[in-house]
């Protein structure tokens, strides 16, 4: 379990492949209810806030999918539900859920005319013209709503 703080630190590495590998390793280490101790370690070393920060600042599809999967795995631990709700849910909603809903029903979900939205105190680009609904977005939506 001593590797978890190192993996959390690597989430901020300047090379995206390092970030992906660290996130994937975290996802695997905390999968399942039998790994709640590892989930607590992730939280205690700032993992929830690191994951949230990276999710809010990346446009890398694979990284978003990995992060949303880690957050979903973390959310299966009862003591982490509140920290995830406080920190990650606003970002998951603004960066994933709202974009997905807007792609499904663009006329029903009106975005502000500026193309951006203030949510949870952070500015999030909500332009969806470059996005298509594919397996990536479906997986992201499932992961995000699973939290």
TrEMBL record:
InterPro entries cross-referenced by the UniProt entry: ARM-like, ARM-type_fold, Armadillo, Plakophilin/d_Catenin
Keyword Repeat (UniProt): yes
Top-level taxon in the UniProt lineage: Eukaryota
SMART domains to which the protein is assigned, alphabetical: ARM
GO cellular component: anchoring junction
Subcellular location as annotated: Cell junction
Membrane-spanning parts: none
Keywords from the UniProt entry: Cell adhesion, Cell junction, Repeat
Residue windows of the ARM repeats: 2-38
Coiled-coil ranges per UniProt: none
Repeat among keywords: yes
GO term, biological process aspect, one: cell-cell adhesion
Family (UniProt): Belongs to the beta-catenin family.
Protein's name according to its UniProt entry: Armadillo repeat-containing domain-containing protein
Species assigned in the record: Ciona intestinalis
């Amino acid at each position: 379990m001593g590797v978890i703080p190192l993996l959390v630190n690597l989430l901020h590495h300047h090379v995206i492949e390092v970030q992906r590998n660290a996130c994937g390793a975290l996802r695997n280490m905390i999968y399942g209810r039998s790994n709640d101790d590892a989930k607590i370690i992730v939280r205690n070393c700032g993992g929830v806030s690191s994951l949230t920060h990276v999710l809010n600042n990346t446009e890398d599809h694979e990284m978003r999918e990995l992060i949303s999967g880690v957050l979903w795995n973390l959310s299966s631990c009862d003591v982490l539900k509140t920290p995830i709700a406080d920190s990650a849910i606003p970002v998951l909603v603004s960066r994933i859920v709202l974009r997905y809903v807007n792609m499904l029903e663009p006329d029903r979900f009106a975005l502000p005319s500026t193309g951006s939205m203030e949510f949870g105190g952070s500015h999030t680009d909500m332009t969806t013209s470059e996005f298509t609904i594919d397996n990536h977005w479906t997986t992201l939506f499932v992961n995000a709503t699973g939290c």
